[in-house]
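Contributing new records

If you add data, match the layout below exactly. Sequence lines come first and carry their own label; structure lines follow with theirs. Keep one chain per record. Anything else will be rejected by the validation script.
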Amino acid sequence: MNKKYDFLIVGAGLYGAVFAHEVRKAGKTCLIIDKRGHVAGNIYSERIEDIQVHKYGAHIFHTNNKEVWQYVNQFAEFNRYTNSPVANYNGEIYNLPFNMNTFNKMWGVITPDEAKKKIEQQRNESFVENPRNLEEQAINLVGVDIYEKLIRGYTEKQWGRPCNELPAFIIRRLPVRFTYDNNYFNAKYQGIPVGGYTRMLEKMIEGIEVKLNVDYFEDKERWDSTADKVVYTGPIDAYFNYKFGILEYRSVRFETEVLDMENFQGNAVVNYTDSETPYTRIIEHKHFEFGTQPKTVVSREYSAEWQLGDEPYYPVNDEKNSSLYEKYRVAAEAENKVIFGGRLGEYKYYDMDKVIEVALQKVKEVLSK
């Protein structure tokens, strides 16, 4: 097939959409293809019972980057949603992140000074000079009570193994706030796009040709021939046919149901931090947009071991996988025609604002050549 486009963009997620929007604005032509039957990647939202449901897990937009905030506001109006999750530990409710409301419920302390002394006392009682695992590291940071009630069970479900078998570096720091503020993100700008993420992304790629239900690898040579440059946002190891080995991820599965009630849990996100509850959290989607619909939609979220063919969610950035990724990164640099980007293309956990930031930077770099 003769070359028709300046850019072929593999993946209709956030990175691909930002890249496509910017190059089109610069007068370039592009084609977007995606193996799924919808655009928006993992930020895809669909309307159920007049509620915007985050199909691949909760996504709350937050950033301190004013340029990025202004950028997304071109494509959507954002509401004033503030992420204030709560933790349910065997029926006891605690505020997240760890703050004065958490410490008051746990110990009865009232002032920041009292809370600091209590945490310091617990840290000193169990301090380990060189923590060998996540359990020792977490206790070093926040003491036994917070670790046992709010970290251990949730983390073990998330990673599928005991905390004393997980490496210490997974938790380098834990946010502890000595204020009565339940805002989870310390971000200046925060909210959810009114009408959902899918509509926002559709506006971003308006006027750009998109082909869905297309597996790039089934006819890679033909697709490559359609453009001068390829922007690839899929798994980097898949691009190279796993020649150095398979990069590992954690996966997530969801059980979503419509309930014939107005309000199931009173909050958008409730984390279940005990070991016995099989899911890590329940999302009640209507609360992201202050919904008053007569019904509600909830999703139970289960962390799962990932196998090739499953949906990859969280890169396992341990030493083994980081070393393996480095081999792929070097191989990617030698692919002159291909730009690797996004969470899967760079094997990195990115928040949405960071995806936009790096995509904008990459476009500038490419267009300046």
